[in-house]
Design goal:
The chain is built from 14 helices and 27 strands. The chain is α+β, with helices and mostly antiparallel strands. Strands 3-2-1-4-8-7-6-5 form an eight-stranded mixed β-sheet, sandwiched between helices. Helix 3 packs across helix 4, helix 8 packs across helix 12 (427-447) and helix 10 (358-374) runs antiparallel to helix 11.
Amino acid sequence: MLFAADFETTTDENDCRVWAWGVCEIGNPEYFVYGTTMESFMEFMETTENSTYYFHNARFDTDFIFCYLFEHGYKHVTDRRKEKTKTFSTLISKMGQYYSTKIVFKKDGKTTNYAKLYDSLKLFPNMSVDNVSQAFGLPLSKLKIDYKAYREVGHVLTEEEVEYLHHDVKIMALALEILFSQGLNKMTVGSNAMKDYKEIVGDKNFERWFPTPEYDSDIRRSYKGGFTFLNPLYKEKDVGAGLVFDVNSLYPSVMRYSKLPFGNPIFFEGEYQQDNIYDLYVQRMVCMFELKEGYIPTIQIKKNLLFVPTEYLTSSNGEMVELYLTNVDLELFKEHYNLYNVEYICGWKFKSTVGLFNDYIDKWTKVKIDADKTGNKAMRTIAKLMLNNLYGKFSLNPEVQSKIPYYDEGRIKYTLGEKEMREAVYIPVGTFITAWARYKTITNAQRLYDIFIYADTDSLHLDLELPPELRNLSNKELAKLTTNDLIKAGVKLPADFEVDPYTLGAWKLESRFTRARFIRQKCYMEDWNAPDTWNTPDYDRELLNVTCAGMPKDCHQFVTWDNFKVGSCYKGKLQPKHVRGGTILIETEFTIKPN
């Protein structure tokens, strides 16, 4: 049987325990069972043999289970071949990302009674239970209770508490049922995407296009993330009205339309020489560089104490630096910087093609468009997840190290297991997909340099106002506009800057702000309220759009236009703390720190 499960726990460090638990069967959402003790939950799992439980953010809930297991004589094993009665094994990454637990209650010969625990957050990343309900268009929403209220041992659940618990697990059970009905039953959204892709192209094509990669560790050094950059002219300054454009499915559009590598690379010495067959390459080089005037910086240097790893550099400060760049990144590097004392050491070149992902991208794009037309929120959400989570699977690091839980004076602590090597997938695809994505964002930011404020992976925030006839449109109405609509209305955009609400890879007018403040990368606020409401009772806090990396959403209610600045502190942050019996969430503050 498959269940969505949830715990409700106390918040007292000296009395940390589960005061309620609930499970809802996936595929039979009216089957709901609940209890009030950890013992009754473990008994339910043991008597409901060989079942699987999905906790949303299982990292929190499983701490209570681990405590119970250690306290009742269970032993943790790192090799599942050593499973026996009263053992459990876990899969938790070096960075603390929880994936799974298997508990063996009894093993007698070939007969095993076990339970498996998974994290539904890995299937619906960055989505709370409430977000899942909204994204899937479910007929029920998350309720509220007083988490801080004292509930003694033996507390009898109120009708309100039971209903709250039921809603939480039923929401997740319904969403998981819809996901699984599409055959997407792997442990993570990325694994689901990879499974579906392989089914579309076939194992033979996959193995031929993406052989076990040679030179993985070298080519991996060219792999970088999205481009996120704040124009220093706007740093910590109040900005007037502006527009935000987002790319429609940036990574899927790159996978659909850009040249990507396949097959084994050929190693070359020195500088790459033009090769019409092996026309993509990764170049290893050393040089010094200075940013050209009027250009956006594109280079970050990591694992070098001389440079801040998150900073885009205007200069190598007279130092010779080593770089591994795809030819896509190298083209931008040469265009944006003056290079000195360049030495090309070696590189790896690839055959390329367009179309490796066409069938996959087209399938899920059609699902998304059809879902938009019919109002099927669930399938639209699944399509977006599938479109955005395939490319990352190609870039998985083959070196892994797990965290191992152990018991210390009633608390769960973790130690690192041995490093292991798994088979890499095909890093060249990952590094070129992300390179082409950066290229699109950076080249468009550069051509709009005079009005460019901020970029974050697939978005451009521009110092550009709408003409009066468009200013009263809602963001939803603005999103329907095209390049022709905007240019006809007098918006100063290049004619070939494609704006369209649906076209894959085009820019969509995501929102209009009336004022904004950008503090640093991933820390800014944009106000969507009309200027004449700023200091009136009509001001709508819901239209104050706050983005700040690390700031929990519960803090947003305390953010105002006046207090959003470096050094400000906001209530609402919950910090997990391992204590005797499990984990509690301690209320603390979030502070906006300087770079």
